Model the fold of this input.
Amino acid sequence: MGANAKAKKAGVENELKEPTDFGEGGYVEAQVLVTNACNLECSHCFVFREDNPNSPRDKMDDANMLHQLRLLRDKHGIKSMLFVGGEPMIRKDLVFEGMKLFDKCTIVTNGTYGIPSVPGHVVVVSLDGPEGPSDAIRGAGVFQKVKQAIFERDPADGTSVIMQMVLTRQNEEHLEAFVEEVKDWPITGLAFTFYVPNRDDRSSLVWRDLRGRDRVVERLIALKRRYPRLIKAHVAALEMMMSDVCMDAVGENGEKCQLRKSLPLYMGENGRFERTFCCYGNDVDCERCGSYMVFNQAYHLAQGNLGHFPITGGTI
Ligand code: SF4
Ligand code: SF4
Done:
């Protein structure tokens, strides 16, 4: 039975569409935005920026998305998938079905719908500082809700749970306090990444120049030395973020960025996926990119490791 006949039999209204042609290249890893909807409105969110293809609200039903993910997996050899949103747990049944298609999966969630139990896979849970500062960014009551979900889960269920803080100029002063707050929580590790601005972003989230960010990177390196097992980062990769060398890993327009070797799948206007310039969207400022994953990947490349090492894949 053909895919569309199966869809009809299953009562699926929309016809299954063939995926967008993303060329013949191979992608070990891809990222899929399973929903544009989110129950939070974080101040540093890159998903809902103007320049990103986020206007259609979930124009892909489950059957279509799974069909296209399956075909893209087979065409491009995708082994590892990052499920993001919006808030992916709003479409949790779709996420759990989609996870069956790939060897290694990561769900990036705000944690307010509970922590999914996905043995053998990774769940990245976002908080942006201790309770007060994090709630100022993510919304009142979110910190306690996430904390409760972390403590209610079964820590022996085989799921790797990584807590992640996005560092901005707005919350950087709370870095050490956050580590002290969560260091004894039942999590697999703690990850940090820095804000990735748009080109015209002059907001209070961005450091005036990269030397301001350097001071925070240095503090993070000190924390890594203090808590080597807890903090999921390589000192050498963090050193590559420093302002005097960061362009070596990035390039003015992202031409050196290893993260662009993954395939970011946003929901397009026509019920098919659309890819953005990189996983952070379209109008990004590579010169000020603070994505730890970029520098982690560059670090591994410098070591001669040719695989893909996303922090969120648990293989730092
Ligand atoms: S939880 Fe994530 S997707 Fe939702 S607003 Fe915050 S950063 Fe954006
Ligand atoms: S913004 Fe960062 S992740 Fe995106 S292409 Fe530029 S350097 Fe790479």
